[in-house]
Amino acid sequence: MRIRLISSLHVIAFVLSVAAERRRSTGKVVPDEYDERTYCRYDSDVSTVYGLSAFAALLASQAVVNFFTKCLCFGRGLSHGAGGSRACAVSSFALSW
């Protein structure tokens, strides 16, 4: 059950990230109506929403893993030993992102 939930979140994040890549925003150079300058006008950016949703799915997956392993903030999983184990787990967690 747990592995299915985590795998499903990873598959959802992958699909959303592929969708974000395929829906990149495009821009056009438009002349300014008040002077002789030009600027870029971009269409609506759905890819940002897809990317943020993929990030949220991966973050939820990490939270599920930490909850079930009682690691970091969801229990006393690393508090039995020395502080080095906890520091190693926190730094590994930060570097994985």
UniProtKB/TrEMBL annotation:
Residues 1-20 form the signal peptide. It is found in: Endomembrane system. It is a multi-pass membrane protein. Pfam families: DUF1218. GO terms for cellular component: endomembrane system. It comes from the Eukaryota. Transmembrane segments: none annotated. Keywords: Membrane, Signal, Transmembrane, Transmembrane helix. PANTHER family: OS07G0462200 PROTEIN-RELATED. Belongs to the DESIGUAL family. This is CASP-like protein. It comes from Acorus calamus.
